[in-house]
Give the backbone structure.
Amino acid sequence: MISRVFPGVLLVMSLSCAGGNGGGLSVDGSVLTDLSADLPTSGDAAPADEAVEPPTPVTMQQEWIASGSLSLYAESHVPSDCMKDNPCPAVILVPDQLTPGIDQFSCCAGKLAEKMHSVVITYNPPGRGVGGQVSGGEEDFGGIVAQDALKDIANHYRKKGIIDIEDFGIISVGDGLADAAGAIARFHGTSLEFVDWLIDIEGPTNRCYITQSPFFVPPDKQNYINEDGPGVSTTRCDFDLNMRKVKFPAGTSADGEGTDGTPNSYICNKNAPVLLASGKECGDDNWWKEREAKTYLPDLPVHYLRLQFLHDHRQPTRYNAREALHWVTQSDAPTYQINNVSVDNNLKGYSEADLESIGAYLKPKAGNGFGTDVFDDNGDFSELSLPELYLAVLPAHIKKMRERANE
């Protein structure tokens, strides 16, 4: 599969069309479009007459954490002054599709801890990891075992006493949304009551988004992805919310393979990574129910923020973001928001043209997506690097969620 891995201040603008729980649609302009100043460089130096306090040193700690009968590998990046008599804010980073968290966030977890003066926790979900860092158990694809693992990781660090339990959030990337939303919805009333907020970075809501892939021929010429697989239906794919041809459109190339344009978008093909690895199909309803974020988002009890770039890191469209908001609006979340759009606005009634015109989707000068250009049909894709995502874009949104949770 071709995998898309991964403002000047915006003027506040409003649209006159109706829709959304938050009244008129607006962008608050809280994130700068030019992020270059936020990225550390080896040549940075403060003016001679400007005193700058050096950052607090951060150390990385490795641990094996029990989750039921499993032993999970985790790393925490801890500022040196975070201790029991001076606890610090904390975030857990939940990785994307079948990826070890230690590897996915290796570029930036320590630097994020330094930048935010927070404990930053990464871990390998069950069955994931490399070498001596493989967590116990089998890959669970975001199911109950994976959600329990996240809950146990969070509680382990809570009990250490160096974390401010009044300032604790979870950040999920892509498919990690099922792990995060599931853990919070299932355990917030008991063992995760200290979690205040969730930032969801382009997470899929159902099995059809999770299994979506462009036309793909792998190097070994095996496991083609060239058609939809079995199990596609209106209920499973939420085509009642947005039609298939809208969410997963045909490409612009004459052959559908992307040779002279964009490729077709296919869903539920048996060779999509999760289906190939699990041996399941989209029709396996009992298996999928616990692995779809839409099962849990209607029960989300914390502040929710969706980060969505102009170019999604894996999907051909951004309708997964709109559907995430659809499910969260049914919850008791204190607030919900996409990017910097007005709070508690579910985007209902607004077209994609409306949203693009107001700048609702993230498109900083550093890049308007952290995937690839496979679905770029007009040539405007600009790749955002992972350091830019985690160290330039994300911190402002973490700060916003902390402030919101403390209001």
Summary: Residues 386-405 form the longest helix (20 residues). Confidence is low (pLDDT under 50) at residues 1-22, 31-48. The two ends are 44 Å apart (CA to CA). DSSP finds twelve helices and ten strands in the chain.
